[in-house]
Amino acid sequence: MTNVVEFNHVSKSFKDFSLKDVTFSIKKGYITGFIGSNGAGKSTTIKLLMNLLKKDSGDITIFGLDQNKYNQEIKSRIGFVYDENCFYDTLTIKELRKIIAPMYPKWNDDLFYKYVDQFRLPEKQQVKSFSKGMKMKLAIVFAISHDPEFIVMDEPTSGLDPVFRREILEILHEIMLDEQKTIFFSTHITTDLDRIADYITYIHKGQILFSKEREELLAEYGIVKGKNDLLDRDTEKEFVSIRKTGVGFEALTSNVKKTMNLFGDEVLIEKPSLEDIMYYTDKGNLSCTH
Predict the structure, then answer these.
(1) Tens of pLDDT along 71-121?
(2) Which residues, 6 or more positions from 15, have their beta carbon under 8 angstroms from its beta carbon?
(3) Distance (Å, rounded) from C-alpha 65 to C-alpha 258?
């Protein structure tokens, strides 16, 4: 399987935050969801990917090419969707097209106008009159109209209502039908990734905790429920984190098989959501009393 992107032992330090030894890959022809809480390092990683920040150490290759040596070629093959409007908002779609289209050798006007029409975007209105959802659709139109091989999306559904979010996900599904495109989708709305992601990369406090196929990940992790008297110093070490209440405990395990062998039918094990995995990993050990 070909990797479109490879991060190998990449580090980047700031005054109050560091990416530490980040290693993961993005596989061709799939949607990889990139998750992590606010401040975990998602935006920094994307800026390094797009060569908008200089790494301190490590290697980043895209399409098998060194990003510093082949920066212009690489970017001509990427579509980028940012979480905020990055267009001149006093211009119309037609005026923006005149500026943006010449930048891409493979710009496709037929594709551009197809999506403008499909998304019902008004060509003659200034961008500042668009809703947030319309601006996101516009960003996607410009990102995909030069037929990019790789699409990077930074929080594309953030702040959108459920109808717009579902529509954006349908657009991504349509884009992936030719099986040649690759999408890297950074978001904190994990339910969106439950719908469309093939792989999940999870960053936590500047480090990659895992980068795995989504179905494999959800088979390995589990939400465990049982009585508090099953817990002791040794058994608690088996969990990522535990939430105790007056009537029992709920915990996250990263090894369902081992947990089943340890507790047998004394506990209930449920399939987790991505949100469950993020919640328990971020919060650590919680306790409350009822």
Answers:
(1) 999 999 999 988 776 788 899 999 999 999 998 989 999 999 998 998 889
(2) none
(3) 41
The first and second tokens of residue 201, run together, are 């990369």
CA distance 196 to 183: 10
**pLDDT tens per residue across span 162-187:** 888 888 888 888 888 877 899 999 98
- CATH code of residue 212: 3.40.50.300
* pLDDT given at position 288: 40
Q: Inform me whether the pLDDT recorded for 254 exceeds 70.
A: yes
Residues 6+ apart with CB under 8 A from 252: 221, 222, 223, 224, 239, 240, 241, 272, 276, 277, 280, 281
- How long, in residues, is the chain? 290
- Residues 49, 181: one domain? yes
- Both 212 and 226 in one domain: the answer is no
Q: Do 34 and 185 meet the contact criterion of CB atoms below 8 Å apart?
A: yes
23 phi/psi in degrees, rounded to 5: -135, 120
**The predicted structure's pLDDT at residue 168:** 82
Same domain? 230 vs 145? no
Q: Say what the pTM is.
A: 0.87
Does one domain contain both 231 and 88?
no
- Among 217, 245, 268, the domain boundary falls at 217
Per-residue pLDDT tens for 32-60? 999 988 888 999 999 999 999 999 999 99
Q: Who contacts 182 (Cβ-Cβ below 8 Å, separation ≥6)?
A: 4, 26, 27, 28, 29, 30, 31, 32, 149, 150, 151
Amino acid at 40: A
Strand order in the sheet with 31-35: 78-81, 150-154, 182-186, 31-35, 199-204, 207-213
